[in-house]
Amino acid sequence: MSRRVLVFDSGFGGFSVVREIVAQLPDVEIVYIADDAAFPFGDWEEEALRTHIVDLLGDFIARYRPDAVVIACNTASTLVLADLRARHAISFVGTVPAIKMAAERTKSGLFSVLATPVTVRRDYTFDLIAQFAPAAKVTLVGAVHLAALAEDRLAGRPVDMDALRAEIAPCFAERDGARTDIVVLACTHYPFLADLMAEVAPWPVAFLNPAGAIARQLGVVLGAHGDDGCGGSAVGPIAEFVFTSGRQAPPDISGILDRALAMSTR
Ligand code: DGL
To answer: Which segment of the chain is annotated as a signal peptide (predicted)?
Structure first.
């Protein structure tokens, strides 16, 4: 009997977390919720997005009765994790900017956080920097188009490399002879562009994708819970797809998922 986990994102970015869950916890039954009706979250006003996600996930939790929920989205996690934990007696695993990891690994003392425009404005992000990286020089970069570029890539469409270069350019800072050496990928869509980012980066940096740590945390959380099975129409390792727009999964959904599972996310 496997455990049932809801994985939630605005689109296919959460696949960067799914690939790690599949690798580390192959018996978990995944119900993937793509809130495509609301994509991109990065454009939403804060309070409206909070209410929207709390209500929506409340409905899905009642319907699927999962053992755990993975909020595979930084934009959502930094906003609603506390509200969700206060309302539901199940485990939530969030995806928040990997600032602690970057602070531990940076050699130059300069790193950047690349995220949606709203994530880099959140108190949650400022608090992580104050708590874990007080001595680092942190550059916060809000990217407007990157999540859509990642959706293009996953769908097999060409990526606009000039747009990609322009979006990541502000991540590269130089100060007193030191240079940025880490870019934190603080949106779950971005690992699917990491190899292309490396191609257009002005100098080599490490692109930090925390998805492995999120899957490990899910394993810890599930270890403390009982089992529950679920049915649904499976696509590869995903038991069921839900698109909030009400549309059916696109005909090439297996291709999108295969591409996501096979892609190098560094
Ligand atoms: N994948 C989401 C994140 O991690 C956001 C993408 C969006 O703007 O919808 O922040």
So the answer is: none
